Amino acid sequence: MASSKSKGISFYKPVGIPDGYFCLGHYCQSNEQPLRGYVLVAREKESFTSGVYCDYDSDSDFPALRKPVNYSLIWSSDSAGNGCGFFWLPNPPLGYKAMGILVTDTSEEPSVDEIRCVREDLTETCEISDTILSSGSKPFQVWNTRPCKRGMCCKGVSVGTFFCSTYSVDEEEELEIACLKNLDSTLHAMPNLDQIHALIKHYGPTVFFHPDEEYMPSSVPWFFKNGVLLYEEGNGKGEPIDFCGSNLPSGGENDGAYWMDLPADDDARNNVKKGNLESAELYVHVKQALGGAFTDIAMWIFCPFNGPVNIKVGLMNFQMNKLGQHVGDWEHFTLRINNFNGELWQAYFSEHSGGEWIDAFDLEFIQGNKPIVYSSKHGHASFAHPGTYLQGSTKLGIGVTNDVAQSEYSIDSSTRYQIIAAEYLGHGVVTEPCWLQYMREWGPTVVYDSRSELDKIISLLPFFVRFSIENIFDLFPTELYGEEGPTGPKEKDNWLGDERC
């Protein structure tokens, strides 16, 4: 099946299913990517596939799997005149959920023996994620699916099936199909400590900084050793911070009671701002994802200073003096490892207030299996490929630029890293550093008249475009209009939750 803007998509029916196991749905993907995916199968009682249990529950006398009652025809490509494909939604018995869609090449309704539905208490709700197909004239859309609730403590496991419909579906709308729930609290498919080290050594990316980068990363101890001070509300005198952060207030929340700032001496301040690439290392948080079917290796990088932004207006570029700068900059990227086979599945690139998942086959690699991560000039956002990325209006060519390029400045995360947390391994296996428990800001909050910098840009532009430009500047992120130090990794939403995209 094809659309005018793509090479089409293909649908796959699982074959070679072991005896006693049953299909839960069919698989779909774009023809523009290599064939790569999975569909889970299930069987009764104490058996499981790849760590996902489908078992009797002590509170239920009903079987975990049952045949559908019948099917509803969702859509037929025969009516669209572009082939013979019939899409069927299984109608589950009361108390059960369908896991996926079936595709046939005839109008004859499939046999109920083709598939199994899963008992409702063994499932989690799911939602659409990436769009695989969107046809215009006769509405028919196909999406990948994912659990509605995602994060370190969530149990939803993606079956690997797809969802399709002839009506509009909101991203967070609960679907008529579900995903599985992993009831195995041991998370036995997750890697042990030795396996984590092996994965990082095998897949650890090389991070490249822009050739004109002025504000390099450093290790956290280097930051503390070079005169950074801890301030408390109501006390104008800063206190030196122990190199391991043992005297930082721990726990609580970001209540504004404490913050860090650079040394008062100008030479010392400028020295800290520049960072220290030789000391820099990646700080690694390992956690379960999608019910333990995947392992997320979040790699955090610390920069003592975030430099001012560059603003692009058409063909003109304006380097700001203050706009966008702040003390302390925590950025990260995440490797998602498939626990079914140990493959690098995707990588998440954090880009300021958002980010993007990139499939492994779309990454650039160095030294075999190690992806490349590009860090943007001054802002240190992560990107998968070199170039200039615009944050703003791409249509008008107006916004903040993120410039990334390969250079001699780099960190090999496969050798320069420290594992700072892996909660699922249990207490005491990984010792969390003292500074990780500091939940306040790693820099001061400073409000300044950044609007005057933008007004200078507007005054240089032709009169007939000034009004529209001014309106767009008003839409820029509020963090550009003042300095506000970020909180540390453990205070971020993605520490317990999934990545934002």
Automatic annotation (TrEMBL):
Superkingdom of origin organism: Eukaryota
InterPro entries: Vps62
PANTHER family named among the record's database cross-references: GNK2-HOMOLOGOUS DOMAIN-CONTAINING PROTEIN, VACUOLAR PROTEIN SORTING-ASSOCIATED PROTEIN 62
UniProt protein name: Vacuolar protein sorting-associated protein 62
